[in-house]
Amino acid sequence: MKEQPVGFLDSGLGGLSVVKEVKKLLPRENIEYFADNLRQPYGEKSQPELVKYTLQIVNFLLKKKIKVCVIACNTATAASLTQAKNIFNIPIMGVIQPAVQDAIKNTSNNRVGVIATEFTTKNRAYPEEIKKIAPHIEVFTNFCPEFVPLVESGKLTDPETYTIAQIYLKPLKDAQIDTLILGCSHYSFLKKVISKIMGPEVILIDPAISTSLILKEILSQKENIKEEGKSEENYYTTGSPEKVERTAKIILNNNNSKIKKVKLKELE
User: What span, in angstroms and rounded, lies between the C-alpha atoms of 212 and 133?
Assistant: First the structure.
């Protein structure tokens, strides 16, 4: 079991933020990562579509003998985590609950902001999860549709990115939040820009960090952490492997893993 890989899925490359943190904490774990680039952005899809995509990808990853699956996508977590947990008999975890727990611990003025995709925002996944645990906290949300394409194209600190971020973040600055959840895994790669705009008094909650810590806990409890040997990593995309590979190398600091193409019919 220890040698079996950890599976990750996302609409694109945002979930690599989670992989990056997991590699710091669990450097020997084998990794199977699936990026559904052809069908992104997930934030504009319906819940039935998102459930279908998630279940298809988990099934694909199960063929790679994964021991646990991380839905490293806030939108897919909001839409399909419950269904996936009910269907599959391996541990399935999302990225929303770990981030919520961190935000509740960190806020001082009980004013928490969330930036996310359109689906996650309209689904109210974050506010509802926060209110379950801490009903006194006020939650302010905004969706940022242009952030995902900017990350996918590698424009992490471009002037264009900064200008767009200022527009998206203004309502949250005006709300005087002291804690901001980056409610889409892609947004982790924009932390430098977001932090500069929000200022040092606002704590950024990165679900990638929160999720990697919970994953380590899950594997530790089951005595299932791989502690020896090199990490083997495989990456898959429904989109263009060449395009994905270019951005993945920027995100993972010149990672040399090849990206393999998966046709949609292979998921059916």
Answer: 21
The enclosing domain of 199 has a CATH number of: 3.40.50.1860
Active site residues: 73, 184
Point out the domain boundary residue: 160, 180, 207: 207
* Structure-token pair, residue 268: 């059916």
Task: Give the range of the structural domain holding residue 12, as residue numbers without chain letter.
Answer: 6-94+209-267
Global confidence as pTM: 0.90
Cα 82 to Cα 4, 86, 227, 243: the distances in Å are 24, 6, 31, 32
Burial of 174 (0-12, 13-18, 19+ CB in 10 A): exposed
Strand, coil or helix: 204: strand
260 phi and psi angles, rounded to 5 deg: -100, 140
List, as one string, the DSSP characters of 143-158.
Answer: E-TTHHHHHHTT-SS-
Give the tens place of pLDDT for each residue, 200-237.
999 999 999 999 999 999 999 989 999 999 999 999 99
Give Cα separations from 240 to 145, 184, 235, 237 (angstroms): 21, 22, 12, 7
